[in-house]
Amino acid sequence: MSTLSLHQARALHLAAQGLLQPPARAAKRADVASCIQRMALLQIDTIHVVSRSPYLVLHSRLGDYPREWLEDTLAAAKVFETWAHEACFAHVDDLHIHRSYNRHTRRHWGLAKAAQSHAAQRPHLDKLLEHIRANGPVKSSDFERPEGKGGPWWGWKDEKRWLEALFALGELMIARRENFHRVYDLSERVAPQLLQPVAPTSEATLHAQLMEKAITALGITQARWVNDYFRTKPRLKDVDLDALVDAGSVQRVAVEGWDAPGYVHASHTALLKKARAGKLQATHTALLSPFDPVVWDRERGSTLFDFDYRLECYTPEEKRVYGYFVLPILCRGELIGRLDAKAHRAEGVFEVRGLHVQPGLVWSDEHIADVAQAIQRSADWHGTPQVRITQTQPAKLAAPLRRALKNLKIERPDA
């Protein structure tokens, strides 16, 4: 096995994820689908104290782009929505894999709820399908809530639960989003290719395909991290990857300090050579989403970056350590801190409610300058160009960070 340093492994991972270096050019509309294809999944979440997660993930990789490009890409059927490790966008090339795996193999609460609705309320589902077939796409808001009351599933009204059940069952797909609200239509109208016959794929083949996609998206991974990317079962051991290694699809490598081997997909052979030669240089600094693929697996983030990240928005306020919606700070190949932010759009203010430096790390002047630029880029993109630093830890970091931000404004008087 070839051996990589931890620094080289990080660089390989970030290169595969599109986070090693800043974008080389202004984003184009087609880059949204390409970026999702590269990551294999883009998780969907509705929290938007700063911006909804999928937009943040794309911004960290593409730079400034119009948010509506994501909706446009969905409406153009270049990506689709699916249950994976959670609700996600995926590239249309993977449509059959996800639908087959979800239909026959996946165990997820969303699919389990759909199965319950199918068993108990199929006549209602059929009636709703006929309505959509005759009248076209629908939103949940098209149906009135009886007496202002919802059902037991998140308080949703019946039609919302039935729409979600039909989506999970694969009978409906998301045709587009309007103000981020789902618009449902018949699957065959959203993706006509589904009407074409497809040879059945065995469960073992589907599982192997998703394993390879996860390894490719991660760049480098340990066996025990592979299944989490798509939440396949079971968690893997090294022996489970022997067949892929023997076939030449995956290469086994050693990483200094790891107690288990790493795995790199054959499609990343050139990247692996560059990493081993020290030719992958991390130069990008960005604010990451809490649901970014780099950090959503807590164990992986801790092992790769020595960064223990836990989302605290579902934690009672008095028990939070860092804040409600905390953005990990990526700086030149390292996760160097976390930032709790809020975009006050009406005031044009991007508030840094709390910024915490990674324990044991002292930020250099270069760290401060890079992070100030990343914060200002994000603030400008959100339409909240005035940055307000409320609190930092350590407290003495606030003054130099404010000076760095002020200097950016002086350098860009037209910003």
From TrEMBL:
Which InterPro entries does this one have? Answer: AlkZ-like
Looking up PANTHER family in the UniProt record yields:
CYTOPLASMIC PROTEIN
Please identify the protein, giving its name as recorded. Answer: Uncharacterized protein YcaQ
